[in-house]
Design a protein that fits this description.
This protein has 441 residues and is α+β, with helices and mostly antiparallel strands. It has 3 domains: 2-60, no CATH class; 92-271 and 279-306; 313-436, Distorted Sandwich (Glucose Permease (Domain IIA)). The protein has helices at residues 2-16, 37-159, 170-245, 250-260, 282-306, 430-436; strands at 20-25, 30-35, 318-321, 324-327, 334-337, 340-343, 349-351, 356-364, 368-374, 379-389, 396-397, 402-406, 417-423, 426-428. 18% of the residues are buried.
């Protein structure tokens, strides 16, 4: 059975791959090579496998090239979208800041008006008490005058009695004069009493009106307080999230900034409302809470200016390489890439990403023309492969200060900036800081 199958198989091979002979002729002899059907089948299978491998490899390379191009285009679109988002967030931040400042001005004006109203109300209360005291005095005088009038009338009656006619005619005239004087004094006192009562009623009406106006002012103040509290929450929370997203402890960062800006007696003196020795009221507590949040917001802004929450390139650029392991563009081997590469034409301006001090500005092997900036919180940024350096060692720079131009110095394949962020000497991914600030700046 096996022999029959072998014969059939050999016949099938003979049909498609008949035996061939290759003649090799030289000057003095002729040789030939016999190509059996099995040998031809093996050669055909090998050739087919080689052609198939070539086609598949070519397809894979073509697909990888197309995919890489799509990825670069997508990365460029994402970068442009991110830049537009940064610009929009910056405008929104400025608007929020202006609204907070305007609300603070309105709040200060409202507090001044409330203080004036309270002072006027206290004065009205003092006048009312004075009037009440005057009424009491007038009533005492009135009662004394009435008593004196009654006494004078009794004396007059006694003097005009017929039994007393022999005592002389001068006494009735004196008594009548005294009576007239007392009647006039009584009339004046009654008029003063009526005027005092009218003044007291006017003072009470003024006090009621002042109380209504104070209640209206308290409602307005409450609305202003709510606006300020909402503005503080909207302003502080994104900054807090930004620092947490960057892996930085906000409490520790604020303590460090506060320790560096703790001087008092000048522009940095904390503002608070004093209770003047009285029991604190809710409005004063809310005002002090808002002022504390304003101080915290100011500390956050100072801290944000000292951390690299920005990109060193403001104009259009292409993101060509990320942080981490990658294929070396020079040798093709796998190496660690400690920063990000942003490509643009030679001469593109480069900017500091945070406030700091230049600690290196010169040539460094591999980096080419290099600038190192030391920032707060143990952070250092590096800008490599520059064509021109515009800063010197020891120079203080602020965020968005121009430090040089993009170039192709050092170990490069084309013009770009190699941007690094190091924390306490350890490289970290710069995109962590850039992405953390995408919803803030």
């Amino acid at each position: 059975m096996r022999k029959r199958l072998a014969i059939r198989g050999h016949a099938l091979l003979e049909r498609h791959f008949p035996e061939r002979r290759l003649f090799l002729r030289s000057e003095d002899e002729t040789r030939f090579i016999r190509l059996k059907p099995g040998t031809q089948l093996i050669a055909f299978a090998g050739s087919a496998a080689l052609v198939a491998w070539t086609i598949i490899a070519t397809a894979i390379l073509l697909m990888d090239t197309i995919g890489a191009g799509n990825y670069r285009d997508q990365a460029l679109r994402d970068q442009q979208t991110y830049q537009a988002s940064l610009n929009a967030m910056a405008v929104e931040r400025d608007l929020r800041e202006e609204e907070a400042l305007a609300a603070q001005d309105r709040f200060s004006s409202a507090l001044a008006r409330v203080s004036d109203m309270q002072t006027e109300l206290l004065r009205s209360e003092a006048r009312r008490r004075e009037l009440e005291t005057g009424i009491d005095v007038i009533q005492v005088n009135l009662r004394r005058t009435l008593k004196e009038r009654d006494t004078a009338r009794a004396e007059l009656t006694a003097l005009t009695d017929p039994a007393a006619e022999g005592q002389g005619a001068a006494l009735p005239a004196e008594a009548e004069e005294t009576l007239n004087f007392l009647s006039a004094a009584l009339s004046d006192t009654a008029e003063q009493r009526d005027q005092t009562e009218r003044n007291a009623q006017d003072a009470l009406l003024q006090a009621d009106e002042m109380a209504q106006r104070i209640a209206l002012m308290e409602d307005q103040n409450d609305a202003i307080f709510r606006q300020l509290e909402d503005a503080m929450q909207v302003s502080v929370e994104p900054l807090d999230k930004m620092f947490r997203a960057a892996g930085m402890n906000p409490d520790s960062i604020l303590d460090q900034v506060r320790s560096g800006y703790s001087g008092q007696g000048g522009p940095m003196t904390p503002i608070s409302f004093s209770t003047m020795g009285e029991m604190p009221n809710p409005d004063a507590d809310r005002a002090n809470a808002i002022l504390e949040e304003l101080d915290q917001l100011n500390l956050y802004r100072i801290a944000a200016s000292k951390a690299p929450f920005a990109t060193p390139v403001k104009s259009s650029f292409r993101f060509t390489s990320g942080y981490g392991r990658r294929r070396d563009p020079k040798t093709g081997g796998i190496r660690s890439h400690m920063g990000v590469d942003l490509a643009a034409p030679v001469g593109t301006p480069l900017y500091a990403t945070a406030d700091g001090t230049v600690v290196f500005a010169g040539w460094s092997s591999g980096y080419g023309r290099l600038v190192k900036i030391q920032h707060a919180f143990g952070i250092e940024t590096r800008y490599a492969h520059m064509s021109r350096i515009s800063v010197k060692v020891g120079q203080k720079v602020s965020r968005a200060d121009r430090i040089g131009d993009m170039g192709a110095s050092g170990r490069v394949t084309g013009p770009h900036v190699h941007y690094e962020v190091r924390v306490n000497g350890t490289p970290v991914n710069p995109m962590t800081y850039i992405k953390a600030a995408k919803n803030v700046f």
